[in-house]
Amino acid sequence: MPPGFTKSLAERLNSISDLTVKEAENEDIVKQGHVYIAPGDYHMTVRRNPDGTVRIVLNRDPTVGGHRPAINVMMNSLAETGFQKIIGVIMTGMGSDGSEGIYNLKKSNNSVIISQEEKSCVVYGMPRAAVETGIVDAVVPLNKIANEIVRNLEAI
Q1: Does the predicted model carry a pTM greater than 0.70?
Q2: Helix (H) or strand (E) run with residue 71 in it
């Protein structure tokens, strides 16, 4: 996502969501009920601290697959936290960004992986690549993703 767009996207989503949505800032503490959007032109990772807090770490490392932010970077950092049962979601988008990350997340944390189904996608590239990994647990329409997340949260 381009610089500048992510802040307005976060503000718009925050205005229509019951959750708090914000553009992530470096060293933000990850809080329950909050959604963090990677700023344009920054990779977003997470770091689990010895005191148990989880912080967002932003960087401008080289692009990955031509992307910054790259979903693989974020998902790979989540895989390294040691948390169990993370829920990863891949939604509409071009290319295969995220497939490596969800694979590592699934293998390291036995996470739940959800993919958006083709009919509700604007572009089915990223969800298709995710499904082709063979590790996606559920393929659902856009309007059912939130329900699938909640269903899996209740099972944890």
Answers
A1: yes
A2: helix 71-79
